């Protein structure tokens, strides 16, 4: 394990409780490196410290763990070490069960490079080669690993019942409090934007020229958490368009959300996501994805990310009349989301499809003065979307774009949707 370390020097090692501890101890003594011990629970007596050992702020600490599954233990240790202002870039694990933990840890604010000595696939190959297991066992183990790609353990543990409040109910909770139950850096970022800017408005910027797009983004930027694009309807798309959008997103603190509605097999969506005319993965932090193809679509998209923090929203229900999204379909989408929490951050929906506070529900088909558009679109008001349909975020297109004063309209929608959200959480 020590030989696998990516950097030659560390100031400290920290074993992840509990099996990581004896391994870290051996490394510590053999390499003459100071070691930290992080308790699972702070002891109720004595110094009450969660971490034992001597350290100084800014020291470079290597985490040691035996097996990584969801990454929850590594994650908890990381949080503690970061609170102590230690620098933690790497974790060495003996076995990576390839169930999403290593990928989840590598993203965004977590940014930990997880290096394994063997993966489960390699382990099965070794055991098979030495006649320790047969082909059927190997296949069933790998099938199990593949179908239990579940990083949600991280947050299930964190969100277990506190103070008698049913912390699992999404609708009852503030965006701020939900930041700590998700392990997805972009879901956290979105919750933080919504809480600090006091907005749960996403504007659908369905315009056909870059000038209109930039002008709309400038006007509504201060009032939104997300700018949703259909980039392929622009007649003059260029790299500069994207650069201007990124700048505006940074200035006004909103995220770029491409409504690509990916819906093909994994290998096709990987090419649609990365490369092509729009190179979506390069600039859109979030995208929409249909659940229809099954979870291969998620794996395909993930294969194109290349270490960038990216996420998606699953379209589980549609606002158009006669939509074919049955209850069974919705349940299937929820299952995909639960199994891929390191990529799926929520749903496009028309009802309360999930009470899990990690998932963010976005509801389109919102307008104040209209109920239909003549082409199948159906509208509800911001209040109805938030209070009756359980939306966290409302998506508004023509209601704002076609208003005489789009900025004033954005403020109106924002205020209505945010006060409905406050009403919803206060009512609990
Ligand atoms: O079910 C859906 C899903 C989406 S993402 N219904 C929708 O209308 N949308 C999108 O929301 C749609 O593609 C459009 O960009 C926006 C609604 O626009 P509006 O002008 O009808 O508010």
From TrEMBL:
<dbReference type="GO" id="GO:0004590">
    <property type="term" value="F:orotidine-5'-phosphate decarboxylase activity"/>
</dbReference>
<keyword id="KW-0210">Decarboxylase</keyword>
<keyword id="KW-0456">Lyase</keyword>
<protein>
    <recommendedName>
        <fullName>Orotidine 5'-phosphate decarboxylase</fullName>
        <ecNumber>4.1.1.23</ecNumber>
    </recommendedName>
</protein>
<feature type="binding site">
    <location>
        <position position="377"/>
    </location>
    <ligand>
        <name>substrate</name>
    </ligand>
</feature>
<comment type="similarity">
    <text>Belongs to the OMP decarboxylase family.</text>
</comment>
<dbReference type="InterPro" id="IPR018089">
    <property type="entry name" value="OMPdecase_AS"/>
</dbReference>
<dbReference type="GO" id="GO:0004588">
    <property type="term" value="F:orotate phosphoribosyltransferase activity"/>
</dbReference>
<feature type="binding site">
    <location>
        <position position="228"/>
    </location>
    <ligand>
        <name>substrate</name>
    </ligand>
</feature>
<comment type="similarity">
    <text>In the N-terminal section; belongs to the purine/pyrimidine phosphoribosyltransferase family.</text>
</comment>
<dbReference type="GO" id="GO:0044205">
    <property type="term" value="P:'de novo' UMP biosynthetic process"/>
</dbReference>
<feature type="binding site">
    <location>
        <position position="397"/>
    </location>
    <ligand>
        <name>substrate</name>
    </ligand>
</feature>
<comment type="pathway">
    <text>Pyrimidine metabolism; UMP biosynthesis via de novo pathway; UMP from orotate: step 2/2.</text>
</comment>
<dbReference type="Pfam" id="PF00215">
    <property type="entry name" value="OMPdecase"/>
</dbReference>
<dbReference type="InterPro" id="IPR000836">
    <property type="entry name" value="PRTase_dom"/>
</dbReference>
<feature type="active site" description="For OMPdecase activity">
    <location>
        <position position="261"/>
    </location>
</feature>
<dbReference type="InterPro" id="IPR013785">
    <property type="entry name" value="Aldolase_TIM"/>
</dbReference>
<feature type="domain" description="Orotidine 5'-phosphate decarboxylase">
    <location>
        <begin position="200"/>
        <end position="413"/>
    </location>
</feature>
<feature type="binding site">
    <location>
        <position position="398"/>
    </location>
    <ligand>
        <name>substrate</name>
    </ligand>
</feature>
<dbReference type="GO" id="GO:0006207">
    <property type="term" value="P:'de novo' pyrimidine nucleobase biosynthetic process"/>
</dbReference>
<feature type="binding site">
    <location>
        <position position="319"/>
    </location>
    <ligand>
        <name>substrate</name>
    </ligand>
</feature>
<dbReference type="InterPro" id="IPR029057">
    <property type="entry name" value="PRTase-like"/>
</dbReference>
<dbReference type="InterPro" id="IPR001754">
    <property type="entry name" value="OMPdeCOase_dom"/>
</dbReference>
<feature type="active site" description="For OMPdecase activity">
    <location>
        <position position="259"/>
    </location>
</feature>
<feature type="binding site">
    <location>
        <position position="206"/>
    </location>
    <ligand>
        <name>substrate</name>
    </ligand>
</feature>
<dbReference type="InterPro" id="IPR014732">
    <property type="entry name" value="OMPdecase"/>
</dbReference>
<keyword id="KW-0665">Pyrimidine biosynthesis</keyword>
<feature type="active site" description="For OMPdecase activity">
    <location>
        <position position="264"/>
    </location>
</feature>
<dbReference type="InterPro" id="IPR011060">
    <property type="entry name" value="RibuloseP-bd_barrel"/>
</dbReference>
């Amino acid at each position: 394990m020590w030989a696998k370390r990516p950097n030659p020097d560390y100031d400290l090692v920290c074993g992840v409780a509990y099996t990581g501890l004896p391994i870290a101890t051996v490394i510590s003594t053999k390499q003459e490196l100071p070691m930290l011990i992080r308790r699972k629970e702070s002891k109720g007596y004595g110094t009450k410290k969660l971490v034992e050992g001597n350290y100084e702020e800014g020291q470079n600490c290597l985490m040691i763990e035996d097996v990584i599954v969801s990454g929850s233990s590594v994650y908890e240790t990381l949080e503690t070490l970061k609170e102590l202002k230690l620098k933690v870039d790497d974790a060495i694990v003996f076995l990576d069960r390839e169930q999403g933990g290593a990928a989840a840890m590598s993203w965004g604010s977590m940014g930990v490079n997880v290096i394994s000595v063997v993966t489960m696939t390699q382990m099965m190959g070794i055991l098979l080669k030495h006649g320790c297991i047969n082909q059927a066992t190997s296949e069933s183990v790998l099938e199990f690993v593949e179908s239990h790609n579940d990083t949600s353990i991280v947050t299930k543990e964190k969100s277990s019942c506190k103070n008698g409040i049913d912390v699992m109910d999404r609708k009852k909770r503030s965006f701020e409090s939900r930041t700590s139950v998700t392990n997805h850096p972009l879901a956290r970022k979105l919750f933080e934007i919504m809480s600090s800017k006091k907005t749960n408005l996403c504007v659908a910027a369905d315009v056909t020229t870059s000038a209109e797009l930039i002008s709309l983004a400038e006007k509504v930027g201060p009032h939104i958490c997300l700018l949703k694009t259909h980039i392929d309807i622009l007649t003059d798309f260029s790299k500069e368009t994207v650069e201007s959008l990124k700048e505006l997103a940074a200035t006004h603190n909103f995220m770029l959300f491409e409504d690509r509605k990916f819906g093909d097999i994994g290998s096709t969506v990987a090419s649609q996501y990365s490369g092509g005319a729009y190179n979506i993965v390069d600039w859109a932090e979030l995208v929409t994805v249909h659940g229809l193809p099954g979870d291969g679509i998620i794996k395909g998209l993930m294969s194109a990310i290349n270490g960038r923090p990216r996420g998606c929203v699953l379209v589980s229900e549609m606002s158009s009349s006669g939509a074919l999204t049955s209850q069974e379909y919705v349940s299937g989408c929820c299952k995909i989301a639960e199994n891929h929490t390191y990529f799926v951050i929520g749903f496009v929906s028309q009802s309360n499809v999930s009470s899990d506070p990690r998932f963010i529900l976005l509801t389109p088909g919102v307008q104040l003065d209209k109920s239909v558009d003549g082409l199948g679109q159906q509208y509800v008001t911001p209040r109805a979307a938030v209070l009756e349909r359980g939306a966290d975020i409302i998506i508004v297109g023509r209601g704002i774009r076609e208003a005489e004063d789009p900025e004033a309209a954005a403020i109106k929608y924002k205020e209505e949707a945010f006060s409905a959200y406050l009403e919803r959480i206060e009512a609990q």
